[in-house]
Amino acid sequence: MTAPSRSQGMRVVHLPARTPYAWKLQSRDFHVLNETKIRGGETVPATVGAEWLLAHRPLSWLDVLHLHHIDFEDVATLERLLDACLEEGVHVVFTAHDTRPMVGSADGFMERLRVLHSAEVGWVCLTEGSVTTLTEVIGERPEAAVIPHGYVAAPEALVDLERERSSSAARYLMFGASRASRDQLSTMANWSLGTPDPRSTLHVLLRAFSPADFAEGGRAPLLLETARRDPRIRLSMRPYPTDEEVAQAGLASDALLLPYLWGSHSGQLELAFDLNLLPVCSLTGHLPEQYEWHKGMVEEPEWFDWSHGHPNLFGEKFLAALQRATARLGSGTRPLDRDFLEYRAHEHKTILDDYARVYGGDR
């Protein structure tokens, strides 16, 4: 695909652009360059990194660089990229999805945040609480626009869809990469041993494993062994699940398990709101504020809070929340909420307007 011209709006590269969050940020004012061809016929990778961008200077082929997850970028390389953008008139925007690192050390994460702050990039936070947390981390309040996460499953893609009906007991879903920040293994074991109903099911949709998942300390072998011991647990794997595959898995389920050990914001929580799934969710980070944004329009998640107690309380708190969720689900199938989907469409227009201002559409 050839990149649209500058006359068709600001040209934006997302680093990276693998999630619905990045791809949905397109309007008549700006468009995404990832996976399109630029000068010389090269294609901007969806998972573009700082080194690739620096190798394709001058950066006259883009107007905005939108940074999302910078944990894998070398600090010195990140600084070089920011300097190049300043020299060549590329506006840089950083959305702070996380207020603590998903990978790497806390010191490295803070160093990257301070580099961005000193470079005076445009900041976006998903919640007011994250602005406060980042102020504590950086030592100074960033000039940040607060723009909510918004939908994960596009409302227009759900118009003709509905939840699969089931006469069986509650159907649970858990999906995503095997990260240190979420405990899939103990959650699966607790669900299996703590759910007596033989009709209940758990679908675990996994992203493809890497060697690190099987290295010393890796949990993949135990995860597979646990699943094999309970025929109600179904594992499926995709290289990188598509939006459609995730939505279909959600529409064949009633509740979504979100067993975060820590986290700042959650796109999966927003997906649960989109699909009217009951989230069974750790009370961590700024997730409660994500719910408060939609309070009165979506059901409150079944929270479980273990963060201020002994770590061994995680399973106990989760299992109690799972039992409460099972009672809340009852025996009926949860339909999609068409009113909420209509609200999501209006919300998205506001989000696009807000990003147009952050990107500098009036420059």
Trace the largest sheet across and list its strands: 2-1-3-4-5-6
Structural class based on helices, strands and sheet pairing:
alpha/beta
The number of helical elements comes to 13
Tell me roughly what share of residues is in helical segments.
Answer: 25-40%
Q: How many E-type strands?
A: 12
SSE run: EHEHEHEHEHEHEHEHEHEHEHEHH
State which percent range the strand residues make up.
15-25%
Q: Describe the largest sheet.
A: 6 strands, parallel
The poorly predicted ranges are none
Morphology: globular
Q: N-to-C terminal Cα separation, in Å? A: 27 Å
* Mean pLDDT across residues: 91
Radius of gyration over alpha carbons? 21 Å
Task: Write a structural description.
The chain is α/β, with parallel strands linked by helices and 363 residues long. 37% of the residues lie in helices and 16% in strands. The protein has helices at residues 20-23, 50-54, 75-87, 106-118, 128-138, 155-158, 184-194, 220-228, 243-251, 267-275, 287-293, 313-329, 338-359, and strands at residues 10-15, 30-32, 64-67, 91-96, 122-125, 144-146, 171-176, 201-207, 233-238, 255-258, 278-282, 302-304. Strands 2-1-3-4-5-6 form a six-stranded parallel sheet, with helices on both faces. Strands 9-8-7-10-11-12 form a six-stranded parallel sheet, sandwiched between helices. Helix 8 (220-228) links the parallel strand 8 and strand 9. The longest helix is centred in the last third of the chain and has 22 residues, at 338-359. It is globular, with a radius of gyration of 21 Å. The two termini are 27 Å apart.
